[in-house]
Structures are given as C-alpha cells and as structure tokens.
Amino acid sequence: MYTKSQLYNIRKTFALHSPRPEGYGIPSAVLVPLIDINGSLNVLLTQRSLHMNHQPGDICFPGGHGESNETPVETALRETWEEIGIEAKDITIIGECDFITTHFGVYIKPFIGIVENITIDDLIFSPDEVEKVLLIPLDFFMETTPRLSVVTLEPMFPPDFPFHLIQRGESYKWGKSKVKYWFYDYNGEIIWGLTARIINNMKCILK
C-alpha cells in the first residue's frame, strides 16, 4: 500500500517530467535558417564536406548532437555558429517543426530561425564540416511536390528470440514498418532524407 509521501513523490515526479520519445537519449537539434535576400525569403542549407566519413556530400541543416548541459535550441544555435559562423544574436527563433525519431535511435528537434543582419558574404563555414552553403527560395519548397519513395522494413530476429513466450510463436504475424523518403531537386541539388522530411513538415505546417 502506498503512503501519502510516496504518492506525493509520484505526483511530483510526473509534474516535473517533460515527455520525449521513450528509449531515446539526448536529442539532436537542427536550425532551419530563413534569410531575406532582396525581398525573397530563402532557406539556408549546407552541403556536408565530401571528406566526412558519415553522409559525405548530403545537403542538410546546421545542427548535431546535444551536449549534456544544453537545451535542444542551444544545441541548434551552437552548431550553427560552429558550422557556418552565424551567431545566436543574429537569429530569432520563431518556433519548431515536429520532432523526428529515426530507426537509428536518434530523435531530432528542428527549430525555425529568422537570420538578420547577415549577408551570404558574412558566412564563415568550417571546411572540415561544410563543403558549401546553399540558398533556396522558400517558395520553391512551398510550390514543389517532392518525389516520394516508400521503403518497407521487415523484422530480423536473433537466434535466441523467445518465440515460445508469445502467442502463435514463430507463426505470429509481425507488422512491417514503412519509411517515407522525400526528394527535392533544385537545379540539380538533391535534398532528401531527414532534411527533406523536415522541409516537407514545415511546408505542411505553413499550409
């Protein structure tokens, strides 16, 4: 039987708990930078260095893994400064897209930020991380239907999986996971994967 103090502690614990995807650790975060160029609102993206071991050449948003002492928005702003030299003081965070969970044990929080007092010539990007910077009109994404491809993932079981503990054992009908991949082609620059997923979600929210 629970005592009043135990019940109080349970209530307090859940009152202070911020929900997040179960089983995931520190979130990654990215910034979706929007910048006005001659009266046209553009999305600022980067191409990952061709020399990187992980996803070389992919087009993405500035961002990365969080550090234990920072909030997700602080992660996005820090990574933006480290990758392309835009300081937090020149970015106004106006909101968030929906966060993303992946099959690789990562969840990502995308923040929308308006970049002010900065021109493309002011950007100083890290050649170890960034191959180049791209500016793509927001209208392009709003007006373009991306190509969609759906990949079906099927479960693979280890030899010692305890089939005997579940109904129907090895005959149990497992569901298949479907993963959607969007592709945008802007003058030969291909934006796909999580970046395209974030853009498509931003577009859906705006519409």
Write a concise keyword list for the protein shown above.
alpha+beta; single chain
Largest sheet: 8 strands, mixed
Separation of the first and last Cα atoms? 52 Å
CATH class: Alpha Beta
CATH second-level architecture: Alpha-Beta Complex
Compute the number of structural domains. Answer: 1
Radius of gyration: 21 Å
Shape, please?
globular
What does this structure look like?
This protein has 207 residues and is α+β, with helices and mostly antiparallel strands. The chain has a single domain, classed as Nucleoside Triphosphate Pyrophosphohydrolase (Alpha-Beta Complex), CATH 3.90.79.10. The protein is 22% helix and 34% strand. It contains four helices and eleven strands, in the order αββββαββββαβββα. Strands 1, 2, 3, 4, 5, 6, 7 and 8 form an eight-stranded mixed β-sheet that branches. The chain has a three-stranded antiparallel β-sheet with strand order 9-10-11. Strand 6 (100-101) and strand 7 (107-115) form a beta hairpin. The longest helix has 14 residues, at 193-206. The radius of gyration is 21 Å and the shape is globular. The N and C termini lie far apart (52 Å). The model has no long low-confidence stretch (mean pLDDT 91).
Produce the secondary structure layout.
Layout: H1 4-16, E1 28-37, E2 40-48, E3 59-60, E4 63-65, H2 72-84, E5 91-96, E6 100-101, E7 107-115, E8 130-137, H3 138-143, E9 147-153, E10 177-186, E11 189-192, H4 193-206
Parallel strand pairs: 1-7
Antiparallel strand pairs: 1-2, 1-4, 2-3, 2-8, 5-7, 6-7, 9-10, 10-11
